[in-house]
Amino acid sequence: MEARAPRGTTDILPEEARLWQKIEATVREVMRAYGYGEIRTPVFEYTELFLRGVGETTDIVEKQMYTFEDQGGRSLTLRPEGTAPVVRAFVQHRLDGRALPQKLWYAQPMFRYERPQAGRGRQFHQFGAEAIGTLDPACDVEMIAIPLEVYRRLGIQRFEVLVNSIGCEVCRPAYRAELKAWLAGRLDQLCPTCRSRYERNPLRVLDCKEERCRQATEGAPAPLDHLCDECSRHLEHVTVLLRALGIEYRMDPRLVRGLDYYTKTVFEIVTDVLGAQGTLAAGGRYDGLTAAVGGKRFPAVGFAGGMERAVLALRAAGLDEAAHLDAPDVFLVCLGKEARIEGVKIAHRLRREDIASALDYSDEFDQARSMRAQMKAAGRLGARLALILGDDELARGVASIKRLSDGEQWEVSLDGVIPAVKEQLGGGGGPF
Ligand code: ATP
Ligand code: MG
Description:
eight-stranded mixed sheet; binds magnesium ion; alpha+beta; binds adenosine-5'-triphosphate
């Protein structure tokens, strides 16, 4: 049987990898501009971290984790999301001893056992940021502004920003009780998952994607109407700053995040160009998380955006021109045994000078393919110049340069090959 990649995983082939590099480069630039430092955490963590840090009533913990025991009998889990590991690192390395807030970003693979669809994989990638140690609404707004700036620089335009506040430890208990009482009379209209979750986490019912749950919860009490003074004021300040930046947003009173540790601000950036998997990025404030993983209490806020969904959005907008292979600058056509050795040497020198060079490879060390076959290969790769080396020319100490755009060809001395090639190529670099 032919080997295949596991369901829900994808290979990113070279052309598509160019698109990824472009997105990753954009993320890096934007994070730098906003003053975030990169953090890289392990691919697996102790399972306990996600039980405490993501929450036992979430989709992730209930049914999506890749959990296994290692040879030492410890339970480990492949990282399903980025926030809990970053917060763990913040606590473990006593980063609160440095300037607060600690502003950290990441772009890493995540693993969730999901039903694979377009834009929903079992191994997928997120870029995200966390600002730990501040309640400042300016940081909540940064978490929305950063992904928007990434999309703006990439040219992705069709999206909407949805904002809500889900309160805090002070105001949520009363709201929760009211929502529970409201739902109690409608339990038979909910899906089985929501019925089983209702006791432990009634807010999640508002987040359910099933149509019957959406209908049944129409008119349910909203957290927005039950915020304490502090949470109302915080939300007010977030919206003042959003308007000051000219960021259009819509209040969505039903928006609650899947993860248990969220407080106050929650938001999503959604698009209509990706079908059912329309959320490009999402995040919010999680003032209770550092304490949940065993640290002191620090208010914090973050976001995560899907890389695959950014790639899909670029493609949907026809902005995938970066998805191509880099053509070599120079193709070395080597005719004869000595010429092949000289060609390997010249390619080596050109590559050291950062000039992308390709050679015609042959299965026989001392046999070159025909000139015609090699020129065809150069054309197929889209090389700009061919450098033609024959044994006779070598004996005379020369090589020929052929400009493939117009077919013009001339001889240069072997000593002067590198500068001659450089002069022809001029200053122009790669596509970006
Ligand atoms: P959903 O409700 O779509 O399952 P979620 O609440 O699980 O989303 P988060 O955990 O907040 O999503 O993840 C943030 C972002 O990461 C999502 O908006 C999406 O862009 C991306 N993402 C999440 N899960 C996947 C996945 N399985 N495959 C690809 N991208 C994903
Ligand atoms: Mg999910």
